[in-house]
Task: structure prediction
Amino acid sequence: MPPLPTAFLRPLAHEVGFSLVGFARAEPIPPRFFLEWLEAGCSADMDWLGSRAAERLDVSLLLPGARTVIAFATNYYRDAPEAADSPIARYARGRDYHSTLRDSLKAFRKRLKQAYPEVRDYGGVDSGPLMEKVWAARAGLGYVGKNGCFITEPFGSWVMLAALILDTEVDAYADGPATDRCGSCRKCLMSCPTGALLGEGRVDARACLSYQTVENRDLQVPESFRMEMDNLVFGCDICQDVCPLNRRPVPTPNERFVPRAVAQLGVVELAALSQEDYDRLVPGTALARAKYDGLRRNAVYALGAAKQHASRALLERLREDPSEQVRQAALWALLHLDA
Ligand code: B12
Ligand code: SF4
Ligand code: SF4
Result:
């Protein structure tokens, strides 16, 4: 089959909602950085990262005969004053990005299949065994900064990524990652409150507050990290907020990223959230990953870390909460108020 024309694929990607698109040859990924990262324990308890390592490093195990990986990036930055002080990271304030990017990917695949029915593909957003930052870099959309985030020229790092593998060539490929623009800057390394950035874009998930607030399903978060959660309930944007390459964000026109009502709640309201309000406000957003008790546990830590004395009565009430996660967090927060 002749190579697919990028002149057809590029506008199609924009029509279905992606902000950036690029094309990389589906060559195996050198295993060193990923395997060393796993061996050092940097994946914390996200065992799913290591369990499909071979497929992550060689996409022809996901799609036999793979020739091309199309990388997509979607700008999610919204300038929303009502959510300006939200303790929820920007990517999680609107509708769940998984469904937003998946819908774009689905529409892209449908139109691709209509035009080229013989092409076979395999796609993913976040949860598939695909190294999305590597593909975005190879496809020329930007590079991985010292903060471990993928940085693009037009939108900084405020982009979510997706990838699609094809068993067909395209007529033009990128030359590789865009030029590294970090230079001698070290702002993110200096600003990370927990020292999770190890240099060269490596992140130790065990020490990353994004991991601790989103992925850590344990009863408790280690105490040294709780202390740093004074305005963090879900995800962490500190190393992106300080980045000079994010100074001129471009507000996305995509309405799905408009912050939802839950992003207008402060730490106190999130700690006091009733099950009914949770059911009304959270499903359909990425926050659902932390579940009702996990979200409240994090908010309770934030009250303790910020020494919010005015919330003592709420914390006393949460000491009797049916959830052990929340009860233990409330006990810690109360002790910390008086420390
Ligand atoms: C596991 C994971 C996490 C973990 C670990 C983070 C990490 N940086 O590895 C935790 C839970 C901590 C996390 C946090 C966040 N995450 Co996350 N996460 C992932 C996931 C599922 C896998 C990442 C992975 O494989 N890590 C392993 C390391 C070793 O690989 P790597 O990250 O690709 O980095 C290496 C390579 O890129 C390599 N490299 C760099 N350039 C090049 C070029 C070439 C050619 C090659 C071969 C290699 C190479 O060097 C890097 C360092 O070793 C991806 C989705 C996916 N399927 O890819 C989302 C993803 C990386 N996360 C995302 C987001 C948005 C976040 C948060 C910003 C959320 C938040 N606000 O709280 C934070 C950011 C934390 C940070 N500073 O990085 C986005 C990234 C968007 C962006 N612009 O960068 C992704 C891509 C999800 C998506 N679909 O958009 N995340
Ligand atoms: S997301 Fe937060 S905790 Fe994680 S590396 Fe960045 S600043 Fe550090
Ligand atoms: S803060 Fe500086 S070092 Fe860190 S990613 Fe941004 S430009 Fe690079």
